[in-house]
Amino acid sequence: MIEGSKILVVDDNPDIVEVLSDFLTLNSCEVYSASTGKEAIEALGKNNVEIAILDVQLPDANGINLLDTFKLHDPTIGVIMMTGHNDPDFIVEAMKKGASDFLMKPFEIDKLMLMIMRVFKQRELLLERTNILQKLGDTKKIELLNRELQKKITELTTMYHISNKFNSCNLFEDIYERTVAIVNEILDQSCGYYVMDNEKSELVLYREKTKDNGDIAENKIFLSQDQLNELNSSRKHFVRGDKLYLPLTIKGECIGFLMVQAHMNGNKRNGRFLESEIFFLKLIAEKASTQIENRMLYESLFESVLHTLRSLIIAINMRDSYTDGHCRRVTGNCLSLVDRMDTISEYEKDVLRVVGPIHDLGKIGIPDAILLKPGKLSDEEYAMMKGHSVYGEEIMNRFDILANEAKIIRHHHERYDGKGYPDSLAGTDIPLCSRIIAVCDTFDAMVTNRPYRTALKQSDAVAEIARCKGFQFDENLADIFLEMVRDGTWE
Ligand SMILES: [Fe+2]
User: Fold this and answer.
1) Span from the CA of 409 to the centroid of ligand 1 (angstroms)
2) How many Å lie between the centroid of ligand 1 and the Cα of residue 101?
3) Threshold 0.90, pTM exceeds
4) Which of 40, 152, 232, 292 is placed for a possible disulfide with 10 were both Cys, Cβ 3.0 to 4.6 Å?
């Protein structure tokens, strides 16, 4: 059982060291010896000693102090104290300090063997206990690390979801509605967006999304001038009662607040916000602010581009007064028509608002001799005139942000039966906005006097639209337009 055990024998009496060493070596132990405290400590440092047989009285050290050093080095080491006196005080003190057993000099070598086996067994139990405690400690550490890791993963996943939801928001979506919906969806909390009314010292509810689709309690939040000044200057989130207010800022200016209401979860939450929730809400407020700022920049750029394009329409109008009025009326009729449609998006309505007034922009490239010709155009002249839809697209394509609008302009003279220009597109291959413009454009051209012909009577123009539906025009759109004319809601 003790074969291979590493045993250190410490005694200043070389005879005792020799006897013990021989005996232990004979029993296949690995034996180290020392005659002083210093040598004993050196031997301990060099070898993985399992059991020490330690004389209590050494020339340079006290046995009790050495016992302390041994246990400090390795708490599992088994120490047998050798003493010539049966001193109870000493034994109690040594036991308190971790001595495993006591060998009274002179000793019987056979008893020593039993003692070593017993101490060795004790050490094994101690090692086992230490290992179990170590494992328990490791398990707890792993559990703690796992919890931390899980928390981090949840945090990163939530951050990713927030970013993703903002990044996937297109330019035509209501960013305020999207923001309150994100708060509601990701954090499961009721949220309202309030705009600042500095003159009235109040925050006015603009968009809301509640947990139960009900209403947020306050439509308006009144503030004192001091509170308002504080909000404007600090631009930091703040908590009042169970509500958290997060400012949305553009270029350092506060434009409004997200108000989030902490939901009750038994008594645990007590209507308070967790640190992680505040972190995510601040992220949402920052993302929303950035989106709003980007939109403002985009809209400013868009408006500047449209202003340039409208200037071109004015230039055309200086040459041909028909174009301006025509474009205005066509736009009005397109918007009236889409108001009667169930299946059109807000985005397409916006596109029509932009494209309607400039759909004949390409006429800037048509020579006066053709544009203003009082008589019928020759085939060659008509071919050039037809080029205006492509010229219009080419001008629009100079502005990257108008790519879709450019396409609508290119196709506004296509026919539903594929016999139009410039690409002979047919049916729903023609963009919806182009099909809408085609109906309104043709009708307006028919009922307007031109230098080369007088206007058709309204009834004849209506009959022409009805006759051409399904061929020249999208039948459904033509029907809606005819309904508009019947109702008198056209320009
Ligand atoms: Fe046109």
Assistant:
1) 8
2) 110
3) no
4) 40
